[in-house]
Structures are given as C-alpha cells and as structure tokens.
Design a protein that fits this description.
Keywords: Lipid metabolism, Membrane, Oxidoreductase, Transmembrane, Transmembrane helix. GO terms for molecular function: glyceryl-ether monooxygenase activity; iron ion binding. It is found in: Endomembrane system. The protein is built from 15 helices and no strands. The chain is mainly α. The C terminus is likely disordered.
C-alpha cells in the first residue's frame, strides 16, 4: 500500500467513515435499522465535531495550532500501539472472569440500567486510582497535560492507560454479571459521551447543557476535572452518571468566580510531546532513586502524586482542603440572632 493510500485509510478511520462507505458501496441501507448500523452512523459525530470546533475557533480568530498540536502528536504516537493491547485485555478479562460472575444478565433495557451503574462504578474505580496512585498517574497524566480543552484531548493518552483501564472496568463488570454483549454496547455509549465531554470552549462556550447539568456529567463538569485549580483537582471522576461522585463526595460544579486553569501542577513544556508523555515517569524515577530505603521507594510508587517521605506533602487532597479552609475563613460570619430580653412582670 502506497503512502497516499495509507494516509487516505487513516483519515477514513479517524473520521469513522469506513462503516458508512461500506453501506453505500453495498447499497444495503436496511442495515441502518440495526444496532450495528446505528453505531456506524454515530461514529463520525465526534471527529466532525472536532472539525467544527477548529473551524469555529478559526472563524472567531481563537484558533492556535499549539492548543491542538501536542494532543494530536500523542494520538499519532498511540495510533498503532494501545488499540490492539486494549482489545486483547478486554477479551482476556471476559474469558478469565465470566465463569466467576455472581449471576448472569441479558441484553435487555432493564439490565442496561444495572449494567451502566456497574460500569460507571468500575470507571470511577479506575479513574480514582489513576489520580491517587502515583505510578498509575504516570499513565494518566498525559491526558491532563494539555493546557487547553478541545476534542483532541480525548485522544491524548499514554499507550498503556487504555489496557489498564479496560482490565479494571471489564473485570468488575464481568464479575458483577454484566452480559458481554451488553458490556460492549455500554462501552460504545461511554466512548461516545466520554469523547463529547471533551468539547472545549471553542466548540461550546457554556458546557453546562442547561438542565442536563443537574442530571448527568456535562462538558462543564469534565472541564472542572481537567483543571489544576485547588478546588477542582481530583473531582468528577465519573463519565456520564454522577452517582458515584456524589456517593464518594468527589462531585464539583464549575463556579463562575473561579476560572478554569487546565493542565497539571508540575512545571513542564506544554508543547513538548515527550515531556507530556514521559515527564511524570522521569520525575517518579528521580524520586525513587533519591528516596532512602526500600519502603520509601515503594511508597513513592503507590502513594498519591505530591507525597514525600519528608512529610512535606503537596497532594491534591491537601491543596483542596487548604483552599476550602482559607475560603471558609474569608466568609463573613453570620450575624447572631438578636437576644430576646426576658419579660418581668
């Protein structure tokens, strides 16, 4: 295959057009009434939204190539690596754990509700650990490195993160009895919504989506998740349903008085793809090398980012607590109710 054929093939795949092209070539439009046909129609929506986001930014003279270049280069770097590892990881977990499921479900609408709640729980677990265990943060931090939000950020991941995420999520769902076919359908919905919520200000200025902001997680919530402001760090781990964020008290709305600052707290070159990809791994390696004793070396890998063997911790949890404490101290004290005088007769 020539270079132009390869480039054409990659563009078609990126925009998710191969399924539609196949339907048009065959002339069998009846397949559009099936689940598979509907999925083929939905696949191109996110790439087309990305294109519209770029066009809109250019029209309003807000387009900057550096806002998109780093996540795009990470996407290219991952294109031929993580996809196959992730698929293999899902298949392996289904084969390994299906026999140990607590019960069996079927592909029906009522089990879809159950399955999605379980899936969201498994996603919360994976995502929470990715922020709270430093060696896993090394895999996830690439996704948080961009300093501007746009749909290309959705494609910016370290190549080992998808396999790690899918092992956690698939294992929990299969053990909880989620039907494999239903699981793949849930993954499709989750993948679409998980991409959509990365829509940046260039594509959607207000990401709250009206009344939906009170019901589900919207682009506004996910912008909060990608922020490095102390109040916003380590919040909104869920993807569509905010149930588990509210249960575990990690839910945070976007506040109009706090402008979102994207990125990670570590000093880095935001336009250097190698720094975004390997920077946290290098920092961890340095800390492990300098740490006294085997115990501290292991703890640097397992404790949250910002943990220090000296006790001078700078974790997201401490930063958030400090912010809330300072904000509480700045709030004016409520005026005490007037003291009622006793009446003497």
């Amino acid at each position: 295959m020539g270079i132009w054929d390869t480039l054409y093939s990659e563009i078609i795949r990126f925009f998710g057009l191969s399924g539609i092209i196949e339907i048009v070539k065959k002339g069998d439009y009846s397949s559009l009434a099936t689940l598979g046909g509907i999925q083929k129609l939905i696949y191109p929506i996110i790439p087309l939204l990305l294109l519209l986001e770029i066009i809109r930014a250019a029209f309003y003279k807000r387009f900057k190539i550096e806002d998109y270049s780093m996540p795009f280069l990470v996407f290219v770097l991952n294109r031929f690596i993580s996809r196959f590892i992730s698929i293999a990881a899902v298949a392996f977990c289904i084969g390994l754990f299906e026999r140990f499921a607590i019960f069996k479900t079927t592909f029906t609408w009522y089990w879809l509700i159950y399955g999605y709640i379980v899936w969201e729980f498994s996603h919360f677990i994976y995502h929470y650990l990715a922020h709270k265990v430093r060696i896993l943060w090394c895999l996830h931090s690439t996704h948080h490195a961009p300093q501007h939000m746009n749909l290309f950020v959705n494609f910016a991941h370290f190549f080992l993160e998808a396999p790690y995420a899918d092992v956690i999520r698939t294992s929990i769902c299969i053990l909880m009895g989620v039907n494999p076919g239903l699981l793949f359908f849930i993954m499709f919905i989750d993948g679409f919504w998980g991409s959509f919520i990365h829509l940046g200000e260039n594509g959607l200025k207000n990401g709250r989506l009206g009344f939906l902001n009170k019901i589900i997680l919207t682009p506004s919530h996910h912008r909060v998740h990608h922020a490095k402001n102390p109040l916003y760090m380590d919040t909104n781990f869920c993807n569509l349903l905010n149930i588990w964020d509210k249960v575990f008290k990690t839910y945070q709305d976007e506040r109009t008085d706090i402008k979102i600052e994207y990125g990670i707290t570590r000093q880095m070159n935001p336009h250097n793809v190698l720094d975004a990809y390997f920077g946290e791994i290098v920092c961890l390696a340095k800390d492990v090398y300098k740490a006294p004793g085997l115990k501290n070396k292991i703890l640097y890998c397992l404790m949250p980012p910002g943990w220090s063997h000296t006790g001078a911790h700078k974790t997201a949890k401490l930063a958030r607590e400090e912010f809330l404490t300072e904000e509480g101290e700045k709030q004016p004290l409520a005026e005490p109710p007037p003291i009622q005088q006793e009446q003497f007769s």
